[in-house]
Design a protein that fits this description.
The protein has about 280 residues and is of the alpha/beta class. The chain contains eleven helices and nine strands. Strands 1-2-3-4-6-9 form a six-stranded mixed sheet, with helices on both faces. Helix 2 packs parallel to helix 3 and helix 9 runs antiparallel to helix 10.
Length: about 280
């Protein structure tokens, strides 16, 4: 990853160590609120890493007191005011639907990435922060972390991905309580209900834990890891029979005997296996 790539972003810092990409939300003075640039930069960063096979795993962490305060309220400036053509509110609504889809895609890119994405969460994970982290494969939290579906507290329904994903991560009753009340769920409770995989003592520890997990994933066969993510995501959205059939089709085309042989050989020889990376994706012509 070039130095230019690492320093070109206004909301993030991006580094690559070994085979792990580390994306940090980097507006601590604003509690990492999601301003207009955020929504363009995050998918650009993730797709660059993913399309160019720059890493075998991605860690998303943050800076300062809170992981993210969610949507920057400046983004709502003018909401509710009459537009230039107030009589065409239906036409405006159609355009708004497409705009919302672009915001949803900002987080969907994490779910769709070929490599696992791990979130390291400290302090408040609020509003859009819940949308972001619920789209990750694995979540770790510091002891002071908390989760809040903040949208209900400002008179709106969460719409960037929280509900479709949370309903498949935790029991629906907890989703409803968070959604209807806007209460804070502390890290210990998030661990109890399965929203996070582990709770670490502090910010430094949770980031270190996430990076260690990503480094361990990066030692595995990238094709097998990518296949596992595809299969897990497919099973989440489909029934058992359809998922088994899809798994069979995947294995028929991409079962890699040489990768398995290398895993056995490396174990016998007491060394780390040497697996080929995923190849870059070339979009368009």
């Amino acid at each position: 990853m070039s130095n230019a790539f690492e320093t070109a972003w206004s909301c993030f810092s991006v580094t690559l160590e070994g085979r792990v990409a580390h994306i940090r939300l980097n507006r601590p003075d604003a509690y990492n609120a999601m301003n207009r640039a955020f929504w363009n930069e995050l998918p650009a960063i993730v797709r660059d890493i993913d399309d160019n096979a720059r890493a075998r795993a991605i860690v998303i962490s943050s800076t300062g007191k809170h992981f993210s305060a969610g949507m920057d309220l400046q983004n709502f400036a003018g909401v509710g005011e009459a537009g230039a053509r107030p009589g065409d509110r239906w036409v405006q609504a159609e355009a708004s639907r497409h705009h919302l889809r672009s915001l949803q895609d900002t987080f969907s890119c994490l779910d769709e990435a070929r490599v696992p994405v791990i979130a390291a969460i400290q302090g408040g994970c609020i509003g859009g922060g819940v949308d972001l982290t619920s789209a990750c494969d694995i979540r770790y939290a510091s002891a002071d972390a908390f989760f809040c579906v903040q949208e209900i507290n400002i008179g709106m329904t969460a719409d960037a991905g929280t509900f479709p994903r949370l309903c498949k991560l935790i029991p629906q009753g907890w989703v409803r309580e968070l959604a209807y009340t806007g209460r804070r769920m502390p890290a210990a409770q998030a661990l109890q209900i399965g929203l996070v995989n582990a709770v670490l003592p502090d910010h430094e520890a949770v980031v270190a834990h996430a990076l260690a997990a990503a480094a361990e994933i990066a030692t595995k066969a990238p094709l097998a890891v990518a296949g596992s993510k595809v299969m897990i995501n497919h099973a989440r959205e489909h029934g058992t029979a359809a998922s088994l059939d899809y798994l069979g089709a995947w294995q028929a085309g991409m079962f890699a005997g040489p990768h398995m042989a290398e895993a056995f050989k490396a174990k016998q020889e007491g060394r780390e296996p040497d697996f080929p990376d995923l190849v870059p994706i070339h979009r368009g012509m």
